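We emphasize that the prediction below concerns an isolated chain of 189 residues; any contacts that depend on oligomerization or on bound cofactors are therefore not represented. The input was used exactly as deposited, without trimming of termini.
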Amino acid sequence: MNEHERSLLMSLHPRYAAAILDGRKSVELRRQRVAVPPGTKVILYATSPVMALVGTATVTAVEVGTPSEIWKAHKAHGAISRRDYLAYMEGAEQASALLLDAASPLSDPVPLAHLRAGGSFHPPQSYRYVDPDTLRGWVQGHPTAEEVLREASPRLRAGDAKSAAKNQAEQSTGSPLGGSMVLAQHVAA
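Result of the prediction step, given as a token string:
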């Protein structure tokens, strides 16, 4: 599978997910090296108390450096105070800045209960890669399934998303059509 066919599922505190979706935050800061190619779609999962897929964005670049270097370069776009950043980065030797663009909130968030009903969904501690078939399994039957697939799966164009939605409906009625539930877990170097 081409690396651009996978999406990056990223867990975020609800306030940071909201800041990305409303344009106040265009950089996601992480304690570890995140090796993700530009153009990768990011699926935003807001943690408790929201516990739902809430939107998408696109990675435009990734910068890696010391926590101090990353702070100096991106403090204005991270939607985090210096105090909170330093507490988060305590003990880290390197940090990553994922530059994000084209943030788009879902019209109807996909709750954790629905995601788990569609397969073995476990919110990642930080992030993991998701292939389109796995994502399809998680969101099938949800009112925004087509929207999620269109926004998060680069290989699915609008017509493909409609076809996927039709297949989802058939799958939920017991059709023998089934998608692969392969999940590629990314382990940071």
